[in-house]
Amino acid sequence: QVQLVESGGGLVQAGDSLRLSCAASGRTASKYAMGWFRQVPGKEREFLSAISRNGKNTYYADFVKGRFTISRDNSKDEVYLEMNSLNPEDTANYYCAAKRIVFENTVLARTTDYDYWGQGTQVTVSS
């Protein structure tokens, strides 16, 4: 079992950048495929980006391609989401997720693929 803690959210202005971090407990992050999602109250949680266990494969939702970058540092048990050119529509609670998986190169893009979730970090973008 792994526990996930997100950080790095906050209030920013349109056009600004933020870097979210997700710390995984247990020094076993390398065994997990990871992903980032976000949710606005009253709406479903939506996929943003995923990264394979070994960090070699990444996958993005079309609407964040070119703006968001996912990465991981397994030596630190951390996953990151670099977000650029933020706009008010990016305002949401951002969650990281993990799935223990055998295959090193697999990326997962559905909420139902993941077994573990963090508590979320709020990102608010003002216009």
Short description:
The chain has 127 residues and is mainly beta. The protein has strands at 4-7, 10-13, 18-24, 32-39, 46-51, 58-60, 68-73, 78-83, 92-100, 116-117, 121-126.
Q: Can you characterise this structure?
A:
With 127 residues, the chain is mainly beta. Helix content is 0%, strand content 48%. The protein has no helices and 11 strands. The protein has strands at residues 4-7, 10-13, 18-24, 32-39, 46-51, 58-60, 68-73, 78-83, 92-100, 116-117, 121-126. Strands 2, 4, 5, 6, 9, 10 and 11 form a 7-stranded mixed β-sheet that branches. The chain has a 4-stranded antiparallel β-sheet with strand order 1-3-8-7, with no helix packed on it. The chain is globular. The chain starts with a strand and ends with a strand. The relative contact order is 0.32. The model has no long low-confidence stretch (mean pLDDT 97).
